[in-house]
Design a protein that fits this description.
It contains eight helices and six strands, in the order βαβαβααβααβαβα. The protein has about 200 residues and is α/β, with parallel strands linked by helices.
Length: about 200
């Protein structure tokens, strides 16, 4: 086991998450409007408290740290005492510029608050430079999936906040959803098209 792993005792369950970021200002087709943050936070909290998941301090949560779904999931897991591992596709400053800062200082502060209670994994530091034709977002998805499965596929539960469509580029929630399904992980799909109604 990697010395950076937070979970020394094997967890009861591993909660893997992927989800949309909050929409950047001026996004043409809204996907996760900032006004829906409370709806998402409530739905994630409800799921974590449900009998199917019942997240607690015996579990491990794995996600990235982008504004929106990732940090709302991280916050909700930490509130339940669940150990947290954050995985970034880039060095921290690049990640913050690409996936956090555009949404405002509050999200940046929330990233650092979650990071202070988590084990942080940075892909270039631990996996090395990208190979030719390798996408950083697909790589971090598969890395999170591999790390979630390290305690046995039967312990893994995948949750996604997703509109059911393809992403804005490679990687993204659909990519990890497809990979998790291939690994037979139970899936909890928080469908934003239904949540927004």
């Amino acid at each position: 086991m990697n010395s950076k792993d937070q979970a020394v005792v094997p967890p009861r369950k591993v909660l893997l998450f992927s989800g949309h970021m909050v929409d950047a200002p001026g996004r043409k087709e809204p996907r996760f409007p900032a006004s829906k943050e409370g709806v998402v936070a409530d739905e994630i909290a409800r799921l974590l408290a449900s009998p199917d998941v019942a997240a607690n301090s015996s579990d491990l949560a794995i996600c990235s740290g982008a504004c929106g779904g990732d940090l709302l999931f991280a916050d909700a897991c930490l509130a339940r005492g669940t150990a947290l591992e954050l995985y970034l596709p880039f060095d921290e400053s690049t990640f913050l510029a690409n996936s956090v800062d555009f949404a405002g200082a509050d999200w940046r502060n929330r990233f650092f608050a979650a990071k202070s209670k988590a084990t942080l994994h940075i892909a270039p530091d631990e996996l090395g430079p990208l190979r030719t034709n390798e996408d950083p977002y697909e790589r971090v998805n598969l890395w999170m999936l591999e790390r979630a499965a390290r305690f046995g596929a039967a312990k893994m539960i995948f949750t996604c906040l997703w509109n059911g469509e393809g992403g804005d580029g490679p990687g993204g929630t659909k990519h990890l959803m497809d990979a998790a399904r291939r690994n037979s992980a139970p899936v909890h799909w928080l469908n934003t098209k239904m949540l927004w109604n």
